[in-house]
Amino acid sequence: MYNKLNFICFYYFFFLFFFSIVCFMFMIYFIINDMVLFLEWEIISLNSVNVVMSILLDWMSLLFMMFVFLISSVVIYYSKSYMSSELNLTRFIYLVLLFVFSMVLLIISPNMISILLGWDGLGLVSYCLVIYYQNLKSYNAGMLTALSNRIGDVLILMVISWMLNYGSWNYIFYLNFMSNDFSMIFIGVMIIMAAMTKSAQIPFSSWLPAAMAAPTPVSALVHSSTLVTAGVYLLIRFNMLLIDMFFFKILLLLSILTMFMAGISANYEFDLKKIIALSTLSQLGLMMSILSMGFPDLAFFHLLTHAMFKALLFMCAGMVIHMMNDIQDIRYMGGISLYIPLTSLCLNISNMALCGIPFLAGFYSKDLILEMVSFSNLNMLVFFFYYISTGLTMFYTFRLIMYMMINDFNLMSVYNLYDEDYVMLKSMFTLLFMSVLSGSFLSWMIFSYPYMIYLPYNMKMMVIYVSLMGGILGYLISNMNMYSVNKFICTYNLSSFLSLMWFMPNLSTYGVTYFFLNFSQKLSKNIDLGWSEMYSGQGMINILKNYSIFYSIFQMNNFKIYLFSFILWVIILLFMLLIL
Question: Has residue 566 been placed in a domain?
């Protein structure tokens, strides 16, 4: 049985890895020759109705597919060891493959119908994966994830119905010359809102940390290249239509607020996976905001570099949690670099790439984005939020490194940590290699000319200033107790507001459901279990029960009762005769 599972894992790993290389080769060919391939396959033609499957292959879709295939192949190889004690490993792998297939369908679709299939497939399979470990927390998280994503599905359905005005669902034909049409503006607004639900922007942010109930390999896949990036990718494809819309400016405001909020919340969190999830949320805010400023190529660049180091970060976290006896609280960890040096190496490099340390993957995209923000004609608020959020990234990363690497080990002192799971290490080192190199090779490949941005000296050094400030604060705060710091800085209410993602989980769960659940409880208590029960089922049962008790007394074969009732009947008969 074990050999069979090993064979299945290795077979799918090889299959996906091979496809990744094929996509890479084609992408090089397409980008050199500046090619776009548009394929249409007519599935059925009935009277005048044509059902057509369309596929769009250009350098962007092929490059994104290459990254999705590479990360998913590595995740499946990693799962071979991580999920080895799982009885239903084949089911898990098939779910992951379905997930990847849905994402690929979304990537290559220039057609709203096939986009809906991929979009809905992602939502459905993500629900199945979030509730994979079957417990109450997983069910709640799965339901929150599914319902948040359902909003986006409904909006895509509405886009499909509005596109009936044009006679075809191939949106790619209308982006240039239909941009001022009222229907197209309406479609644009709905596409933006759908992307906000999938990429967890405010006010739909609360499902992303909740989705951490899924197994760690799934988190590595979901938070790097599949589910959460679907919204960003859709907006990149629709960018030509949306660029002049007022609603795009609202998206800019919401996405920088998301980035800021996630950065603050990550500094108050102690759950390792939730810290990394909030970090993903922050980076998604960065992608969405630079996209809404009119730089889709930069958003795509950051999306790809982020996918590599974030998948690696989740894999390292999974390995640490695995060895720590399934404990996710960073306060129990500490000094792990002494015991598991190779995992710590991967963790630190992926953290550095996240912070934008020079010449790692994150540096090339993040530095370019921040310099373009400095170069753009935007107000002080946007500028402030961008740089503060960059500082906060450094803040929570240093806090994480302090808690996990430098502080004392707080689990049982006899606990044995070892770093010899070579299956996990091989998959992690593949992504480590990509986390170091992908930024430079993508910057040479995507941009046909180098971006040279000339800024004043202090403006150019601004990224370094805020990063150093964030790092120093992270070091100082993690040596102190966060709550004692809060006691001095702000009241308890404000600190709980900051740590609970601005009360967003409460608003999106209790806030939405409380009124309806409370009303239904009162309805049930007063109607179903009240008057209607008394005058129907329960009341009838009580009457019949009382009668049956009364009659059963007469049927207990007691001679005295029998004689008494006989005399009673005789008296009644005599009385009736006298009256008559």
Answer: yes
State how many domains the chain has. Answer: 1
Report pLDDT digits (tens) over 334-378: 788 888 888 889 999 999 888 888 888 888 888 888 888 888 888
Question: How many CB atoms sit inside 10 A of residue 91's CB?
Answer: 12
Q: How many angstroms separate the Cα of 95 from the Cα of each of 69, 92, 108, 382?
A: 15, 5, 20, 40
Helix axes 89-107, 229-237, angle to 10 degrees: 20
Residue 380: inside a domain: no
In a domain, 565, yes or no: yes
Residue-number span of the structural domain to which 545 is assigned: 536-580
pLDDT in tens, 497-512: 666 666 677 777 667 6
The SS3 of residue 496 is helix
State how far the Cα of 499 lies from the Cα of 486, in Å rounded to an integer.
11
Strand partners, 164: none
CB 293 within 8 A of CB 373: yes
Phi and psi at 244, nearest 5°, equal -100, 5
CA separation for the pair 263, 279 (Å, rounded): 7
Instruction: Please tell me whether residue 18 adopts helix, strand or coil conformation.
Output: helix
Q: What is the rounded distance in angstroms from the CA atom of residue 171 to the CA atom of residue 152? A: 17
State the angle between helix axes of 380-401 and 246-268 in degrees (0 to 180), rounded to the nearest 10: 30
CA torsion sign, 250 to 61 to 15 to 305? negative
Mean pLDDT confidence for 44-55: 78
* Residues contacting residue 527 through CB under 8 Å, at least 6 positions apart: none
Q: Domain for residue 450, yes or no?
A: no
